[in-house]
Please model this.
Amino acid sequence: MSEIVDLRVGEIIAGLQSGDFSSREVTTAFLGRIEQLDEHIHAFLTVNPEQSLSRADEADRKLLAHRRGQQESLPSLTGIPLAVKDVLCVKDMRCTCGSRILENFIPPYSATAVERLSKAGVVILGKTNTDEFAMGSSTENSAYGPTHNPWNLQHVPGGSSGGSAAAVAAKLAPIALGTDTGGSVRQPASFCGVTGIKPTYGRVSRFGLVAFGSSLDVVGAFGKSASEIIPFLNTMSGYDPSDATSIDLPVPGIDLASAAIEETIKNLRIGVPEEYFIKGIQNEVEDRVRKAILQFEKLGAQIVDIRLPFTEQALPVYYIIAPAEASANLARFDGIRYGPRVPADEMWDIFRRTRGEKFGPEVKRRIMLGTYALSAGYYEAYYGQAQKVRTLIKNDFEAAFEKVDVIAAPVAPTTAFRIGEHGDDPLSMYLEDVFTLPANLAGVPGITFPVGFDDQGLPVGMQLMGSHFQEKLLFQAAHAYQLVTDWHVHQPNLDQYL
Model:
């Protein structure tokens, strides 16, 4: 039943509940496509068919009991396959973080976000490729090799959640989890032509997420469209006593009925910041994003020019704060507390050899940057000042949201670049994040969705950012756009590899 992989999430749920097909059949269809295509795309690092099919059989027993009236309640996502970025712990499934230092780590528990989805009935297909410890913008920094963009295998899928974005784009999974520290859901969603949500910091628990930047990391999700992601984000969201940074706020229901969407767009004020349309941006990117903004105006939204004056400072601020937090978080991976030990006579030599051999070059670079920024005599000059400017960036957003409801902007200055293009120039790679970093520093939510293609046939995405905990509004706005456009239903042609 290979056509199952073409179905939308809502169609899969309906088919499972009506008995048109089983969860085993759905899971087998996606596992079969992974087996056929993933040698070319390399979206997955770990796939466990036996574990997945066992979970699918369990879902089928519940579905059958529900249809027979023997089970009143049925978890909302029972039997739906899911891919998980390999920085989130899944009990009894290898979690490498794209690094050699964790190549044999099998967590004894699942991340809260994963556990909540598991209780809702999902079937986990496997773990997706990522830049090492989520440090990168291309998924080239994985110790296990790069992921390829399904639209053009010579190009990157974005990062660090490139494996998850590519899996959804290539129909290897209907939904995938990612994480976003500086754009790692939104940028790969844009590069791969799918929809991705970065929720407000604190909306989804970080417990069980291997930390990169503790004040920046959020768990998000990818799907073909905004409407498909909603039940997964809502299931993951909510207060978790295991995470001191999770927020105890109710998770609102999201009404996608025509009347609700029409009312939302009619009253929607969309801010367009001039700082996000900079010199050097790819012409097709600016053109497609501006056309999408005009589409919102045609739907009834009001377009407002705004300023976010500290946008230019976001890049240097992020690349002080994030490496500083990474330096502290990765100190535990030393061959004694965590990770395989490289033998040596002295303890400090064990540390040096283990970390020197098992960490990749980008992780080492960020650890060194962060350690320097936190060192005696430099802490206030770098880390302290960066935190002050971060507050100014947050204030920019707060002032803007007094005038507008959402902010529309490009996701990245370019479409997906070629694998290896930025390999010898870390700064040019960091500049790919220039439009996504501010939302993480301010802690606000953002959603990315496709708005067209460039002249090479590579997807172009746009992001909408909202004020804190306004995911509902972002979903409604993105859904309104996707009701009148078809960019999100376009698919890469992978038939030659089948």
In short: Residues 380-400 form the longest helix (21 residues). Residues 239 and 248 are 5 Å apart (CA to CA). The two ends are 15 Å apart (CA to CA). DSSP finds 16 helices and eleven strands in the chain.
